[in-house]
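Hi again,

Forgot to attach this to my earlier email, sorry! This is the prediction with biliverdine IX alpha bound. I've pasted everything inline since the attachment limit keeps bouncing my files.
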Amino acid sequence: SLYPKEVTLTNCDKEPIHILGKLQSCGYLIAADAESHHIKYCSENIHELIDKDKDVLGEKLSIFFDAETLEVCAELEDEEKAIPQKVLFNEKHFLLIAHKHAGNLVLELEPLQTEENPYKHQIYLSTIVSELNAAESEQEMCDLTASLIKEYYDYDRVMVYRFDENWDGIVVSEEKEPDMESWLGLRYPASDIPQQARKLFLKQGVRIIADVKSKPVPIQALSGEEQKNPIDLTHSEYRASSPIHIEYLENMGVSASLTAAIISKGNLWGLIACHHNAPKFISYYKRQSCKYLTQVLSSRIILSSANKALLKVNESAVLRNKLLEKISKDWDVLNGLVHGDYTMLQVTDAQGGAVLLDGQLRTIGQTPDEEEIKKLIKTLSRSDLEDNFYYSNALGKDFKEFEALKAKASGVFCIFLSSARKDALIWFKTEKLETVNWAGNPEKPVILEDDVRLSPRKSFDKWSVLQDGHSEPWADYEIAAGQALKQDISEIILEKYEEVKALNR
Ligand code: BLA
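Structure tokens for the complex follow:
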């Protein structure tokens, strides 16, 4: 068995899903040495395309393909895919999708059903690009994408699924058949898509499971050598899924799926997840269109969040400059930060702020009381911090002793003015109680069957948890604004110190 006896969630991470040696039955695979063209692996169903009595393993690729067809694959780089070609077996048309990986030429085939008109895809794609460009907010873009995909691909349920910082995910947009229950807003634990699956996904971009119930086809290997080194299916179009994921889909009542990666700055931002209640095959060209569409969505999302952040950065910089102008005029850093028209509160989106200078504390807005703030700053000053600052939107999770402050200080962002860690600026965010609707109990994402076999949970019924002790998160621009303010304040203090020194001379 692939799984160690003791079941922990980390076992899920260990399943080597790229070398499980099975193919979905909708496709065919032949892999040969890239130089010699001797066939080293083939999917068992390859005999549907060639005379049953004919040997395949150990033979040359020329038993399947003419020289012209193979010519296209000659110049491929490692991990590169060739432009697909139409090929004929037994008077049936197939699409050949070839790629090179680790010294192997991997040739995959899918049946070409009806003659597809490529212009249809082009028109579809250009419509999509212009519609997506017109969408203004991220939510609008995601909703539009879900509805365009639903319309064009006709899955029963289409979701845009977004990861959070812990790799849990939430359904942010959904289009579905009217008789299905809605999953919009439901949250799924990170372990539903373990890290090796996410990593593979980044490389593949788009993937279908054409029929959850169909038996995967084993891939035969030439000899012991190949059996010991199963073929790497990282870039395969029809790699069979991990049995755990298949069971997961069965438990959800799903018969076929399409998944596409939404990638932002090289990371998985989220997925487009499509489900169907019956088997469903999507052709290579349509899969590519979906990949392209998802790339357009990805770049629109990146642009929109960059613009939003830039706006906030500028806004905060303007307010910070007014505050500094005032402080340098009055020479009073301590009171200047918390009194008057411009205060440290405007630099971030916090509800409370405090400054500790030479042992003196001043506060503004909603904060814990002074003794508690001093105790908190002292504790933070003794903690292992990188770059002399700390932030969290769940203080009580990091420091149990401050859990009681959660009403006013679930969120804390503290910056020390120097590495001596005596003087500090600190901002507070109030608690934001939130009902989190999980799809099934997230504490029990797996069950152990027959004492050895790991199984995904059976129930995806809504499991509501009231989440306390959390504030709104700290955005990058807030952290940057806090750091910039600290820098400015330190300079003013130094200037003031020099001035006083000069006067006393
Ligand atoms: C894979 N799990 C996945 C994938 C998705 C999800 C989208 C990728 C599917 C693909 O490659 O086609 C999860 N699907 C979801 C979620 C929704 C959805 C959250 O539609 C929400 C609507 N799964 C478990 C547990 C384990 C696990 C407990 O629930 C581990 C013990 C494993 N999931 C698992 C594995 C894969 C996976 C191993 C990779 C499957 C593969 O590509 O072979």
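Residues 12, 15, 17, 159, 161, 169, 171, 183, 188, 191-194, 197, 207, 209, 241-242, 244-245, 248, 257, 259, 271, 273, 445-446, 454, 456 surround biliverdine IX alpha (CB under 6 Å). The two ends are 82 Å apart (CA to CA).

That should be everything now.

G.
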